[in-house]
Amino acid sequence: MAQRGQMRRAEETEEQRNSRLAVMAQRGQRRRAEETDEQRNSQLAVMGQRSQHRRAEETEEQRNSRLAIMAQRGQERRAEGTDEQRNSRLSAMLQHARELRLNVIEGQNHHQIKTFYAARTVLN
């Protein structure tokens, strides 16, 4: 049965393919519009588990290939982006770096405060 579908898809014209994909997209949009947050979260959890399982079973070569493809797509996306998109991406990266530094500073301060109180307790 699956082979028949593959053969039919191999023989279809570009117009037929586009029509079939458009119908599939509309069905997906309708389904997503009707689903509850709980259903959506459940589906996302299942997708995440499948991805984890697939990644756990992949070989080093498969992993490297997957990461190389992801890197290539990222480069292509960035190359096609506008200056506005680039500036937005750089701004988000800068904000993230600031937040990381702030978290490090807060962690260091927390450690210093704990050390201070521990030393004070020992001295008293």
UniProtKB/TrEMBL annotation:
Highest taxon of source: Eukaryota
Annotated Basic and acidic residues bias: 8-18, 31-40, 54-64, 74-87
Region Disordered: start-end pairs: 1-89
STPR domain residues: 1-66
InterPro entries per record: STPR
Record-linked Pfam families: STPRs
Protein name as it appears in the record: STPR domain-containing protein
Organism of this sequence: Araneus ventricosus
